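Summarise what follows for lecture notes:
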Amino acid sequence: MQNRGGLTISEGYGLHVEFHIQMGYGRKRCPSGEVAPASHLCAAYTVDFKDRPTYTCELLSTESSCMARAGAWLLDSGIQQNSGGVSRYRRTDIAENLPVSTEITGYVVSALCYLFEQSGDQRYLEGAKRGADFLIDQAWDRALSSMPFELSPGGRYSYFFDTGIIARSLLFLYRLNPSERYLSAARDLGSAMERDFGSMSGAYHPIVLLPCKSPAPYETWWSKMPGAFQLKAALAWHELGTVTGEARFSALYEQLLSRSLRQYRETLDIERDEIRKMDRLHAWAYFLEGLQPVASRPEIAKLLEEALAEGETLREAIAPRFLRSDVCAQLLRVKLLGGGTPAPGEIERIEAFQYPEGDPVLAGGFAFGLRDGALTPHVNPVSTAFCLQALSFAGQAAGNGLDHANWRSLV
């Protein structure tokens, strides 16, 4: 070990050695070694070792440190079980994880794929594969060609939205590890979305009961009625159309896009309770995310700008009483993908939801939200996935390294 300029450097003969420093993560590499994206760097140092080549030590930004701690929580806290399935969230008040959810597992597969894409750390790829194996081999009901909400007896229903999120996670993994197994499973899921959830009106039922696949009665809660938020799940159709060349998938996305553009105002307007509109903002942001493949169309670009501003204004009005971390992250991601910049304090607000070092079951995870200034008792994998990516996008955008067209990586 050597210490130069306050940095502890681990010597080694390999091309790529990683080590912790106070600001985040550093990398030492030979000129031929893989380097971090330039947009993540906040400083660089040259370290000379006697009788050895000169190495460049690069310090990654605070955003990357948050990402690494969040990634460690997803892999090591127990939120992902040995089966590969992921619990819905951790309850801090009773020190228990909730049952495994197929949707949440899909989100975490996508988050781990993103972390691997950004870092090259094989642990993330292996974690993503474990989650995908669980979804394909254990969760998918082959007899029904359906994806249940949970594997427990109480999970005998299936969500349109969840099915799309899971399909997208397998497509993300397929891009990184092109196994026909992942593409075939994603295609089956995309087909199930059309076959099992369609209605005579052209809307898609949010939930069907299993095994009969009859639609569940609609409720006023945002996820239990058709809505523009479903366009986020329909991104799976858009991606499948591109990857498989099957025009029917692309057409399905365009059809739901047209319907969503006619009805998206209902997402917020139908809710009369001001506090519960924070939950509706979560769905509102899903709609904005679902627009990303067509964001260059002039009418969509204008809608995105106006709807983002409306969402941010409503969030700030409700925030003193109730604030969701995922909403903060979602709106920031949409803003950054559109070429915007974070507002003062916006990044720090998201970082404040992350649990500090200490309890290994909590450290690095992101809390679901704040009610009247106090953290809710939930450490949430989806909140963690959205927040780590929002911070990563912010770091890339600060260095002009964010690919605004790369919506496919959106978790």
Observations:
- The two ends are 38 Å apart (CA to CA).
- Residues 28 and 406 are 28 Å apart (CA to CA).
